[in-house]
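Severity: low
Component: inverse-folding endpoint
Summary: output formatting inconsistent between runs
Steps to reproduce: submit the following structure tokens with default settings.
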């Protein structure tokens, strides 16, 4: 896979300069994402992870992120994520060709199956993950890999001593080439799933070490 460029950019919102992490993909690539902009499964040209104020309350994050992509000169369809964590404090990890990056905010950890307590969702506690895989995965394997990455994130959160599975607003994006023979499996003991899990776990643990809770 060709080199994917990661940049830290800045944009002005209100009276603040806020950072954005931007990945410019070298070619259209296959992506699966839970992001508010460009989420789902499809071909994308870029990924961004934008920091927003803790008071962020816009009801149109998809439009906001699309506009931000245009302002940054990003052509074509992309993926956009939001977090109130400082994206400059990201952590990266690699495992045999898989590269993972995490921005970690743990101010509001939750249990996924906890009862609904009615409190508003807070972007301060957000774990955003972007992972690059060097070989193509089938659509089913990408879905499987999403579950694998989530399991690895939970493992990391538990290792950090939190009785939680993550936060209420976590997002992830997995990227792989569109060309080549498609691997059929993305579970934690598959070739690329295992590498993805190890990279994600390490990135989340290290990202928590740089984060301000």
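Observed output (run 2 of 3):
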């Amino acid at each position: 896979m060709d080199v994917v460029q990661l940049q830290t950019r800045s944009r002005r919102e209100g009276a603040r300069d806020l950072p954005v992490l931007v990945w410019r993909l070298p070619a259209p690539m296959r992506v699966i994402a839970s992001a508010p902009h460009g989420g789902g499964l499809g071909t994308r040209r870029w990924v961004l992870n934008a920091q927003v104020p803790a008071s962020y309350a816009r009801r149109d994050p998809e439009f906001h992120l699309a506009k931000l992509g245009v302002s940054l000169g990003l052509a074509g369809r992309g993926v956009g994520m939001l977090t109130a964590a400082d994206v400059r404090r990201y952590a990266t990890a690699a495992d045999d060709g898989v590269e993972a990056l995490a921005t970690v905010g743990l101010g509001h950890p939750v249990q996924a199956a906890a009862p609904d307590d009615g409190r508003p969702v807070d972007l301060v506690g957000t774990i955003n993950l972007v992972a690059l895989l060097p070989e193509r995965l089938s659509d089913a394997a990408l879905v499987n890999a999403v579950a694998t990455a989530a399991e690895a994130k939970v493992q990391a959160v538990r290792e950090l001593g939190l009785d939680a599975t993550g936060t209420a607003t976590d997002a992830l994006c997995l990227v792989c080439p569109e060309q080549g023979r498609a691997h059929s499996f993305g579970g934690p003991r598959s070739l690329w799933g295992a590498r993805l899990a190890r990279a994600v776990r390490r990135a989340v643990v290290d990202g928590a070490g740089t984060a301000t809770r």
